[in-house]
Amino acid sequence: MAAEGGEEPAGAAPAAETGGLWEAFCAELQSPANILLICACLYIVYKLWVRQREERAPPPPAEPQLPPLKRQDFTLEQLKVYDGTEQCDGRVLVAVNYKVFDVTRGKRFYGPGGPYAAFAGKDASRGLATFSVEGVDDRFDDLSDLTPMQMESVREWEAQFTDRYVYVGKLLKPGERPSEYTDDEEASGTADSPRPDQPSGDKKTD
Q1: Domain boundaries in the chain?
Q2: 76-188: CATH class
Q3: Which of 81, 123, 148, 182 registers the highest number of CB atoms within 10 A of its CB?
Q4: Alpha helix (H) residue ranges in 66-198
């Protein structure tokens, strides 16, 4: 029954005021600026939560250290075994300018799933010279059709690999016999001087 004298029922004014505040709050939430602000806050909270989980998670077990590889020369067929998979205990070898390097320490780059995984167990010379990781050929490449500038790039990459990784041996061309290495040569881990028959890249060989 309505109150006499047209007076509002007790509690009606607070209820109406609460409803108005809620409507105003909902209207504010629908503002594009506020929606972006809320999303940004939720994203920050999510990132903090993920970081805390990562910090609390135990670190992944370190990969076992592989023993040094004995100094030896490789054909392309022998080289392709060392692609970072289980068949070679995770070891990765890459050839640059007819020199084979053990790049296992850089497995995150050259191992399976890495940005340069296409070079694992391959001759990477042409790919490095042309800045391409696509279509690495399994056939022996004498690099004779590379330009002088591209050959200079190959030599620069060779120098970087020599500084960073362990030299293992030569990449053999078809029909070439492997060298016999002494214990001192195996322990040194340094690259041999360039082969006298190595193409310069200035012109094609016959």
Answers
A1: 14-56, 76-188
A2: alpha beta
A3: 123
A4: 76-79, 107-110, 125-130, 148-164, 183-188
